[in-house]
Design brief:
The complex is a heterodimer of chains A (about 200) and B (about 70). With about 200 residues, chain A is an all-alpha fold. Chain A contains seven helices and no strands. Chain A starts with 17 loop residues before the first helix and ends with a helix. Helix content of chain B is about 60%, strand content about 0%. The N and C termini of chain B lie far apart (about 45 Å). The chains are: A mainly alpha (about 200), B mainly alpha (about 70).
Chain lengths: ~200, ~70
Amino acid sequence: MSDVSSTGALPEMPDSHEDELIALRDDMLRFARLQLSDEHLAEDAVQEAMAGALRNADSFTRQASLKSWVFSILRHKIADLLRSRYREPVAECKECEHDSDSSFDDRGHWQAGVTPRAWGKTDALAHNDAFWKVFDLCLDALPGEQARVFMMREHIGLDSHEICEALELSASNLHVLLYRARSRLRACLSERWFESA
Amino acid sequence: MLNCEEAARLLSERQDRALSMAERTQLTLHTMMCSGCREFGRQMTTLRDLVRGHAPDASAGTPDDKK
């Protein structure tokens, strides 16, 4: 399916990609719900993304997988929604307080067992399903606010200012949340993927 | 002098805001001597690069047979 001929001719495609899109719909909804935490908005975003995908089906070449292409459309939709009409303040940021972090000793140095060690090659991971399963486990283990801001920042690509506005967070609280999320993900991936086996 | 915890925070924050000159200098001094924080910084970048390029929930979708 990745066979794109050098003549530039498109491979044979079914009328649009409706069947494949329908199969992706659940994944898209799950993702949109996580980001928007609103069923209707999530449905709308997915509808619009699918409509956009169908409308532009001709421009889709098999160079990218259909899935990453459709998700990039969805990501833009969600980013627009988050920027414009969406406001959901983080009610009370329990996770924003600076508290002690068990990765460090009382002088702020890495504890022996958890000092970061090199991950090695990571280029091939993007297409490794087993890795992403572990990643999802690690992401699911984060407190909700942390998972959310992490994905808004790193996956959707909103900037700090936009996230602060959407969630009515101060910049310093956002930085704490992002730091916590990244640290935990890093530690979880090190333990369950890079240093296991 | 920064300790590792302070350095780690800055290594995360530099992905979200521009650090001051003083912060950058302190961070460089620290990571020159501390391999743990150096790795931490690399992993912050790797995490971003991986997540940015990825469609979430790979469990269904592309028929990728790699394990």
